[in-house]
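User: For my dataset I need records formatted as: sequence, then structure tokens, nothing else. Please produce one.
Assistant:
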Amino acid sequence: MLEHFQPESTLVFCNRKQQCQDLKDELCKRGFHALSLHGDLEQFERDQVLIQFANRSSSILIATDVAARGLDIKDLAAVVNFEITPDPEIHIHRIGRTGRAGNEGLALSLFTASEQNRIDAIESYQGSPLKIENPSVLQRQDNFSLKPAMETLFINAGRKDKIRAGDILGALTANTELPGKLIGKIDILDKMAYVAVDRKVARQALKILLDGKIKGRKIRVRKLGN
């Protein structure tokens, strides 16, 4: 489905924590940049996952319903139900996360014959039939990889160190050959910060921060991996 529709950002729902992690590992093996969100994550890990997905450093977020509760993701291109929920109301809530504010969005679900009763329950709840297609209509693309446009740099200083977004932007662009248009979203937390940079210049941006200073100080910086 990802190869066929090529959504820029996809939120995938699973019913179990282990399924989230297993699916994330499998997609990464296939060359996708995927992250998982579930109840076993520490708060700082959860923050990093959400920041990378929001700033377009990761194109796929795999989550359980509990972990995704309260998330407000803007301009979400697609929602995929990797596992059908037994609760039709939860299904409607899941797919309602895409196509908001007049924007277009994809809502896709995978199911097997053993889950037909859940499909029937959803159709009954919403009062209309679902459009069902055979997977054979999906077109595969050789060597396809859904690479995100950005990468995220982790900065080991934050709000309590008096670091502001302008300080990071200035350190990256002042007296350098790095255009400001290649710098994306900057998130400042209490003790750390994150900056998204265009994937094509991620190494250059990392070197600039490692060789230079932010607000007159040497600060540890690293690139977040998969």
